[in-house]
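Q: What would this chain look like folded?
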Amino acid sequence: MILYNICIALYSCIVSLVGLWNKKAKQWSQGRKGIFSSMQKHIHANDRVIWIHVASLGEFEQGRPIIEQIKREHQDYKILVTFFSPSGYEIRKNYNGADYIYYLPIDTPGNVRRFLDIAHPEIAIFVKYEFWLNYLFELKRRQIRTFIISTIFRPKSIFFSWYGTLWRRALESFELMFVQNQESKELLHGIGFDNVMIAGDTRFDRVAELAQAAKKIEIIERFKAESDLFVAGSTWAPDEDILIELINENPSIKFVVAPHEMDEGRIAKIINSTKGGAVRYTQCNATTDFGSTQVLVLDTIGILSSVYSYAKWSYIGGGFGVGIHNTLEAATFALPIAFGPNYHKFKEARDMIALGAATKVESAKDLQEWFNPLRDDSAYLKQISDKAKNYTIANQGATSLIMKAIFN
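A: My prediction, written as structure tokens:
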């Protein structure tokens, strides 16, 4: 533990230093200042608190169905949500489904004791990952009911290595572990843990809610008009490079491109490189005349899931980098999906490729070859679309299983 605590302290110092020139690192450090005084001001001693911790935005969306069902069914509890990453906290810090939202204080013994003294949770729920040793050991010492949901364990994880003793001990903190697949259950059984339930992934329940609650977006409706729409979500520069070729080769199709980060240089490149004309969403209003404009750059957040409801085809970014982004938001709207080659750590992506609902592409040529038959053959398009939609329907129900296990 001494080495672990030293590493945690060093990490915090390095991020603070990087924050001198990096916006996200600065948010990470500055956002943690004054947490305890704010918690003491707002969390009352007689509050019954359920603490839900998520790493970032993706994990928040996995935890969200649980949060919202607790709010509906157990109104005597207050919900405390913590984030590790600025990319989650800064977007959801005003989320009204939780009573308290903070960054997670750094995992040092002193911070952990102070956090738990003030928060005094009756139940702690970790979403998918985030195994902070000091937090987990202290939760166990205080006999606080602790769970992890929608998690996946892999053979190469630290828990199954010869040097993973501390991490295996940390797993003893969980009353029950809700995993996504049989492999995870078997791996945990192999190291002596049978307090495991295969519940699946709560994101399927979340995207089902998104499909039902899709918003009407007047700007998208007018931009699309009578054309067919292709939506590319959470894209990065390598994604945009191959998409630009696809756009220019398909002048009769309208495209919405939603960059993962609002990088002005990349947005300018999209606008300047597409031959059919492009406009930014934030520069549009009720009087904008789109005419034959082919591309709309979605330079805003919070509406991408609803934009998918207007589309026929989709591309999900991130696959030429550390990994693809959320494919299920597109699949729930029955969209065929393409993405880059780095998808293997995402179970839903592997599943949809096996089903034929999604395709890996490595070049502009691959993307065009995937798109052409979907564009030209309506029967084939429906076949692939149905596979995507049916996959999301078949995997719903994790939230209900988890809620029953925790509260019964």
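Residues 316 and 327 are 6 Å apart (CA to CA).
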